Task: structure prediction
Amino acid sequence: MKKLLPLMLMGGACAFTGNAAHAQVFAKPAGAKAIPLRVQTLRAEVEIIGAVAITNWTMTMSVENIGFGSLYQEGGVCDFICARPRDAKVTAFSVGDLVGQVEERGFIAPRVAFKAAPNDPLLRSGLNAGNSFRATVYPLGGWEVATVRGTWIQSLATSRTGSTYSLPLLALKGATTRLKELNVKVTARDAALPTLTNNYSLPLKTQNGARVLSLSQKNYRVLRNLTLTFKTPKSRPSITALITPDKKDASSHFAFSFIANRALKNLSVSGTGIEGVMLPKKSVNMGEVVSGTGTYTGEAGKMQATLTADGGVNISLKALPNPTADSLWATQKINSLGTASNRSQIIALSKQYSIVSPFTSWLAVGAEDRKIYRQVLVSSQLDPLVREYWLKMADGKGNTARVAQLKKSITQISTANGLTMQDELYARLGTALNYAAVTGYFYRDTPKTPAQKRYAYLTKEQEEYLKTLPIKEENGGLYALRTKIMDEYRKPHPDFAQLRTWERDFTQYYGSIVRDPRTSLWKAQFKARELEAQTTAAEKTNNATQLAQLDKERKINSHNAYFVNGIGDPPIYVTAPADARQVVAIMPDGKIKTLDYNQNQKRWEGNYDVPVGTSDGDYKIQILVVNANGSRNRYAMPFRVDTKAPSGKGEVLLAPRAATNGERSLRLEVEHSGDVAVITALMPWGEKVSLLPSTINARSFFALTRIPQEYEGKSIKVTYILVDRAHNITSIEAESVTAQ
Amino acid sequence: MRFRRFILPSLLLLCVARPQRATAQATAWSPPSPQTYSSSREIDRLIVLPDGTLWAKTSGGALRLQNGEWKKFNAAPAELGAPLPPLKWRGQTVSASIEGLAVGTRPVPLPNSSGTHISALLPRGSVLWAALFGDGIWAWDGAKWSGPPLQLPDQAREITSLAQSANGQLVWAGTRRQGVWQYSDGTWKQHLEPNEPFAHNIQYLQSYRGALWGSTLEDGLVIRDAKGWQHIGKGTLSSNAPRQMVVFAGKLYVRHSNEVVDQFDGTTWKRNVFPTLPRKQIISMAADNKRLYLGQWGGWSEWDSKTFSHHLRIPELQIVPLQHIVPDGNDVWLGTENRGLFHWKRATQTLEHSDERNGLPDHWITGIKRTGNTVFVGTFGSGLAIRNDGEKIWQAPTELKQTGITALVSDSTGNTWIATRYGLFCCTPQGQIQARNASLDPDEREIQTLLPTPTGLWLGNRNNLLFRPYTVLK
Result:
């Protein structure tokens, strides 16, 4: 785990005005501490119309931790947190290709007669309160640069002397590192704001009647926010109304906003096709923002309306088609609806116009993942109830009040999630049977015991149910799939993409894998590897304090045993408690190896070898631990025997022309059969070139080199040496071909 | 690409050739005729034949108890390896797995035992005995477990197999390292074969003070002299997994898989005698009449019994573990796992590098041996490389192409003996490479180390320890 800053624990709440020395954009995995995201590039395009600013921003950032967990794991789903101006409304948000949506908070489990699971990250998504923006996101890639886009709209901050717009560059980026690239463009469209200054002394340009300023920097250390100041106009203001475009035959929304250059009373807006005008304030003082919204029926761009006030004030609204009008209207509408009594209406508007409300949150989780998560969540809620129901039934207590209550709860949850109670009762009967297996299976041969009766009852019910199932074969398939998932998790570097696929398949039929009690073991394994890496680093710097702390953590973590067996390590290392009674390894041929505790390394150790003649393939060593309290742990340690040499086809491509310095490039490329670890090329002039794995083709290695001048015009024969992970070697030769 | 594990190479590494031995030492004891030594302490399976004969399949062969007489065999009869019929108890099939006991299709949880798992079953009339590995024997009566029906000696708790006589009066327990135990008349009696090594999976062989010293995979050291076999284990050594031995200044140095070195002066053992080396971990060792060489990460240290001189700042060697170090006169050969071979010339303080560009068939070096004017280099999977002094390019003989070399030694007649996991080869002084497996059974050809004596060769195998006079190595 990276070092965590105290600010992160506050959930980014002080992002806008907080300590600029810290990174201000975070990923906050559910159940874990926030992780700072280092913004690499920032692009912002700001449009200011009247007293409204629309900011479109794009950030790219490297997610430095190696990746978040799978969807169901703790930390799989995370909150993306960044700054926003205090009164700004976020109207669009996306992560990569995943477009965010505003959803009802707790959308996955509507409020029914049960409590949402406390660890459900999707339900814990925070409000977009204060000056932070928060959205629930999955996945947020750990290996590639993440691109996040957003739009917010805001009214300018005003005073008697003027109004200001501030782009929170510091809060978006932090001041500890430089931005690789910064591009900001501000367009002020309303000439009624005549005097415009900025704190970067950027020159103003005029483009299509609007004033434009730009800030473009590379490798740039941001030291302050970009602030634009508009002096309050003394002359009579003109007003530009924003109107929803392209709705010729339907009602459009419009909005307007300007800064009052004197006190105005009894404000009103009227005009042909205009109705539903919302003016939060009927009277304003000098310097205040006058804003309102309404509905217009007519052709976009041809709206004619007049704002009047006491004292003969009569101002025309000039139409300017702009989609932001919808958002401004919806914001004002939601505000006007109040809170709880209009909950459903607010939620509907919030979702329709992507304006977050007290009842909604931003969510950027793929539809498929959401579906799976919903299944997982529903399972976590239904399974205990169904289990209790069946055990009561098996015990002959079907007519009790408790069973009636259980049926009611199961019905509520099923109905709320589009399911049928009767189907769910039988589909989840297995959970009760599993429980019965623990409590009663072993006594099933002992007649007349309650356990025997319970087991018999449930078995019969399940058998009857299974007869109706079209997917009987899936039971075996699912078991195998579950085994594959567990095996993958035990690897030092699980293939999370593969796991996601398997887990989806599994969950569709069975529910969440996370309920497996060994989840804690997997976590311990990951934690152990992390601690070992940190210990190695600390040993290099001889940091005694850190080493002592790490030693403490290792001891705590070793409560759960795990094994470590890196590439090329013939010994078996098992980190199990020092006071374990026994740790043994059972080899694939059944031989038993007893492991000894190494006090220095704080682990159990043993040695093994593999006899000649062992067939190629995957094998497992079973590790058994008997803990001091008598409990047992069992793990499988896989290994592979591979004696087959790799194969491949090599190419030597000569650049069609020489570079400006006269040297000609040579592209060395090998397509291999898979499982190749290292490829080197022996050049005829004695050079040894290491090829690198391609980032675009998993079965390809490549390298670029230059040919010496004395080889110009000659055929070049290259010997490629392919070495796989078991150190099987193949040599292949290739001759140069000039690329077309 | 998905991450996968490949352990085979490293396993082989355990068994690869070791650097050249110091020559100033007494010759190891050797028998006058071909001998095969194996241990019968590890019992895989016990079988009682209808005539009452007890067979114990061991990791090195078999034991037979017939008419009260034990007899040892270096190879197990094929029948002992055949699948056993399902075990029946009270009319039901019973079986044990690492999860627990199964009676018919019904799983039975393990008793409250400190044993790791059920490692053997024995039907005893109305009850079923189960050996809980590392603990003892428990009894299952169909409804509940009951405590140990027989009190076992501590040494006999690692049970791998159980058997009984036809009338049930005799019970035998096969163990992981303590041979066969027989129970009768209320007492347990251990049977261990006399005059055999404690273990036979030999990793390295060395002669010291007239005795043969063998390091085993996981059972410490076995020693053979004219008096018989001895065993030294973890109580004396830094580990049960010693990997290399050299003799320097009259003392035996033993390097362990945990990269520490113990010292024996003939009477006293000292553990971890080089704890303050700059790079800590000792990966390889060698000795000549002047110095003890200790290979480490990125270089080596030389010990002359008084002071150290370190060679740890040679740029080409940084971050490279030196898996093999072999003194050659004033110079030093250095073998690595992924950088090929280096030749350190002390006079000029220069380093010559060899890899595939110089004809080495593989950059993973498993052995280095000089015989006369020729240097032999073994590789992990690509055979042998040979170069005569003065030549620049290594030659890879086709006879051993694609073969992993595990050991290289030379005898007094100029033969270079080459061990592989598939048999023994010899390179004659004339440069001919010949297979010399006539006196080796198929299961005696997984050779991991060699030690020459004036009369023959010791061959340390995975499955046994052999002595073969040169006269039979044809």
